[in-house]
Amino acid sequence: xxxxxxxxxxxxxxxxxxxxxxLEAFDIxxxxxxxxxxxxxxxxxxxxxxxxxxxxxxxxxxxxxxxxKNSDVTVSAIPVxxxxxxxSREKLVELTHLGVRKVFIxxxxxxxxxxxxxxxxxxxxxxxxxxxxxxxxINENVVxxxxxxxxxxxxxxxxxxxxxxxxxxxxxxxxxFLVMLSGFDLKEADLPKIRRLFEILVGxxxxxxxxxxxxxxxxxxxxxxxxxxxxSELVITDNLDKAMAELLDKDKIETFLQETKxxxxxxxxxxxxxxxxxxxxxxxxxxxxxxxxxxVDDDFIVQEIVxxxxxxxxxxxxxxxxxxxxxxxxxxxxxxxFLDLMMPRVDGFGVMETLKAxxxxxxxxxLSAVSRRDTVLKALxxxxxxxxxxxxxxxxxxxxxxxxxxTHF
Length: 409
What we know:
Radius of gyration: 22 Å
Number of strands: 15
Shape: globular
CATH class of the largest domain: Alpha Beta
Strand content: 15-25%
Low-confidence stretches: 250-274
């Protein structure tokens, strides 16, 4: 019996690699398309059994690709699964009319994606179903990796993809990591998973194990990590203040980077970042029309910067001059809140306390002119997704928004 074949068309190399690694483990042949033109050519040449495609493709858009597919009898019957951050109802209907079998909205529910792919291929794709909450974001050039409830191979594999995206977007050549592990103790079966997690992080630091700080209250987790000889230099602590103090000692790190980073590497990273920003601007332009964003800040200029930044895609922006005004009239179905810390009557901490009490899961990005470590630590204690220091730049607002609401993860 001939092997089943899947064509993945996505402009993110790490995501293509993730899909390929997963499917190849089940003896499925994977062909990779890097853009719309490349994907169309490989579809016609290889005639795969399934196509998994990102909605937003360069050189040739997905709708055009699907119309070309449907006009060619040799490939018209190939099932298509589409992944996208957010598109309008009209575009969803258009995809249905073009024969798309499934559309998955990012952040992806990866189990549903593999279930759909397996159904189309007639192959049972098994998954690690261990409970796990895994997230990553960047602040002050430090990558925060939060792991709760347990460890899951699927999410760890996806984490590698997300970290590559974030590093390119933020022009981060060699990152530092703060890994926060909470809500579980390591079992014997978890050791390969924790090893894989730290293999990914150490690889991204190019072997600088000491650039990874681990925050955990669990003595069992600490003991298990110290038992992995290849990570013996990991800095493990139960004190967030101590971990942050070491990570934010920038002078030593910047000097080291200047001494070790070749000019070609710096240029390459800058060019990649420029490409990433151009792609990001396009994605915000096309995907951001449905974003609902609240700006809670008593500074009119900040409100205007946010409104102007998201004017092009037509996002809905709600502005509030004080924390109590926002809490009295919280807009429904918010995707994101930009929150100032220092406001009259009810400040940002009061807003976060109330949102936490009512169980709100809306991501928060703090905007503040205050950058003292104790203030940052206090804000992080409320589970905020990112912290930005004023004055604000539109490109930084776009980066943070993409980081929080616009990824595959």
